[in-house]
Design goal:
This protein is an alpha+beta fold and 95 residues long. The chain has two helices and five strands; from the N terminus they run βαββαββ. The longest helix is centred in the N-terminal third of the chain and has 11 residues, at 19-29.
Length: 95
Amino acid sequence: MEKARAHVYISGRVQGVFFRAWTEDEAVKRGLTGWVRNLADGRVEALFEGDREAVEDMVKACWRGPHGAKVTNVEVRWEPFKGEFKDFRIVYGRW
């Protein structure tokens, strides 16, 4: 399978609605690695790596988010696959 890497910025009501925990669960279900974190400007940032089909499906899922979220935009930057992560995790604190 072809590998892919997507750097994603999710806007809307995405903080305070368990978006990071939902993202971690969904990424793990799809066998993806990477991370997710809150940004100081109210967005959620995530980096997904894995099989292209699974990464594309995760990006689509980000438009939905968990119950209580209201996603208004998902900005995706496709990057070269690096394979630098062993798992998917939540990064706590705002950078």
